[in-house]
């Protein structure tokens, strides 16, 4: 008997949404091709896959399908803890799922809380300050250049080429823009120069490091700041001119 899997996701679309949206509002959601590719891969592995969009009706869909496990890539529709909403629902229903749990997802989406958790565990983390308004005095621990971000977004939402600021005037301008556009606090972090890597890990009891991906900041357009922000991730990184590169051969993976 094939494993009955529900693939939960949020689809990138604009139909049915009301109000003024930021240009990058749908960056976290997945397009239909991505969802179908994952479903095809699971079916190739012998799973019986049902695709379930994680909207306001997801509870009823899960109760109807009764999956044995959920492959979750849903981002959540709204709210400061949106990524944790579906995993919390699945835990209540007693359905196992892939990915992190509600607590981890809620903490990780809040950049300020993430910094505090890391620092309390003696894990190196950039100095930072949270701004609920642009008039707040800048901490003496922070020196320019600085990076300004929304405190509770993912997929590089709110991180643009001008998010790297080098003076107080542009700092205040960017903080104001973040607060007005995303209706949340801005977090200001010290800028860490150097090479940038993405490291994926799979597994629980015996975690395995997946191939390491380096962000080739030297491939950014001339004059661009060395940030893997929204333009770099969603506009400049193309098949013809890739910015990401697998930099670690399979045989050198840490086990």
What does this structure look like?
With 255 residues, the protein is an alpha+beta fold. It has three domains: 104 residues, Rossmann fold (3-Layer(aba) Sandwich), CATH 3.40.50.20; 65 residues, Dna Ligase, domain 1; 57 residues, no CATH class. Helices cover 27% and strands 18% of the residues. The strands form four sheets. It has a four-stranded antiparallel beta sheet, sandwiched between helices. It has a three-stranded parallel beta sheet with strand order 2-1-3, sandwiched between helices. The longest helix is centred in the C-terminal third of the chain and has 15 residues. The model has no long low-confidence stretch (mean pLDDT 90).
Count of individual domains: 3
Radius of gyration: 20 Å
What's the helical proportion of residues? 25-40%
Enumerate how many helices there are, as a single number: 7
Say how many strands there are.
12
User: Structural class, please?
Assistant: alpha+beta
- Average pLDDT metric: 90
Biggest β-sheet: strands ordered side by side in the sheet: 4-7-5-6
Which architecture of the largest domain does the CATH hierarchy give at level 2?
3-Layer(aba) Sandwich
* Percent of residues in beta strands: 15-25%
CATH topology (level 3) name of the largest domain:
Rossmann fold
> Secondary-structure element sequence?
EHEHEHHHEEEHEEEEEHE
Largest sheet: 4 strands, antiparallel
CATH class term of the largest domain: Alpha Beta
- Tell the overall outline: globular
């Amino acid at each position: 008997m094939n494993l009955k899997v529900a693939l939960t996701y949020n689809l990138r679309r604009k139909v049915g949404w009301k109000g003024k949206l930021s240009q990058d509002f749908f960056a976290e959601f997945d397009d239909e091709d991505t969802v179908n590719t994952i479903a095809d891969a699971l079916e190739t592995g012998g799973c019986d896959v049902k695709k379930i969009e994680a909207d306001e009706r997801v509870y009823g869909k899960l109760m109807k399908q009764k999956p044995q496990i959920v492959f979750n890539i849903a981002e959540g529709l709204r709210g400061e803890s949106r990524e944790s909403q579906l995993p919390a629902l699945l835990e209540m229903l007693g359905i196992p799922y892939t990915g992190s749990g509600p607590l981890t997802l809620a903490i990780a989406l809040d950049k300020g809380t993430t910094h505090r958790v890391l620092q309390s565990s003696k894990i190196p983390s950039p100095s930072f300050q949270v701004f609920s308004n642009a008039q707040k005095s800048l901490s003496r621990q922070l020196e320019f250049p600085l990076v300004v971000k929304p405190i509770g977004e993912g997929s590089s939402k709110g991180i643009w080429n001008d998010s790297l600021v080098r003076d107080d005037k542009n700092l205040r301008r960017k903080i104001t823009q973040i607060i007005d556009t995303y209706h949340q606090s801005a977090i200001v972090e010290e800028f860490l120069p150097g090479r940038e890597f993405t490291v994926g890990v799979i597994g629980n009891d015996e975690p395995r490091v997946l191939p390491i991906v380096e962000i080739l900041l030297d491939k950014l357009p001339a004059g661009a700041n060395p940030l893997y922000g929204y333009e770099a991730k969603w506009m400049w990184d193309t098949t013809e001119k890739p910015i990401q590169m697998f930099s670690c051969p399979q045989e050198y993976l840490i086990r």
